[in-house]
Amino acid sequence: xxxxxxxxxEKSEVREFLVQLRTGLDGFLxxxxxxxxxxxxxxxxxxxxxxxxxxxxxxxxxxLSDITAKYRDLPIICHKDYSFPSxxxxxxxxxxxxxxxxxxxxxxxxxKAYDVGSPMFAITSGGLMEKICKKLGxxxxxxxxxxxxxxxxxxxxxxAVSVLANVGIINTSFNELRNAVERAKRxxxxxxxxxxxxSNIAKQVAxxxxxxxxFIYSYGPLSSVxxxxxxxxxxxxxxxxxxxxxxxxxHNDIEGxxxxxxxxxxxxxxxxxxxxxxxxxxxxNMETILGERFGIAISKIVSEGDDATKILSTMVICxxxxxxxxIMKGVDPARVDRIKLMREGIVSNAKLLEQVARRFGxxx
Length: 364
Description:
single chain; alpha/beta; Rossmann fold; 2 domains; globular
């Protein structure tokens, strides 16, 4: 399929998806501003931050952890389960993230955190989470409705960064973040649908990985973006993908590659211009081994700038990769029928939500 053909972007499902994709960075700024008024009554000895969330909402904590790694003095933990770790106490700030507000795993963990007495705030568009927070007086950042949960990630990320900066947990200025968003917008323009394939890295990558299983390799600040790309390929393009990080893969993954897999596998390298020397050598060697010796199709996305710029810019490129791959496969990027079927079959989740609603005396 020719991704430079304008008519392929006229299908309603593609147009609607593009609207959400194109407004993501503006959503980051909007939610960063709207969350500035949130104030938290924190314990003086906060020792950690825990993000509760799964799926697109869960990726928010991963991205924020990488963006703020150099701007904070305490750990950020991303917890994606029904439970709440027993080693976490009132010294842990909990951030509950659920775009729908009806995610059973997150609400279950949130209730357990509330019982422990941990301070918290929530990020959601509504649902049961909003009702519970209003009942209990838990601060909440409201995200606008009507988005696909995975496309609401920039909005939720902007809100989370804003609140944590306001309370002094991360030491970065809003101007720095706004500058990173403006640079990411310039990157976004370079991968838009009107930019032809020969100059469009997102279209090039989509061409390389379409109808193959993509192995995504990343390092350091781009590790969360690698995971984001894996999930976007799963949900938008209906493709299997694997996300792996360096230097860990130098001790295992590379041994599993086989030249016989060249026809069905592809590799995507998420790289930085200022890589650690050992990482640069490792990735260069991997490209040689996989590409020249094994005949694997290699794609490379290279970023530069501070961590926020790298992450936001690379995430934008990867989101467009997933859309272009979906178009090439002829699938609707918005529909996630298998996920819905799977989750509707988990009766325990529905019962859990009913129990939570009854406990706090809210409607569900």
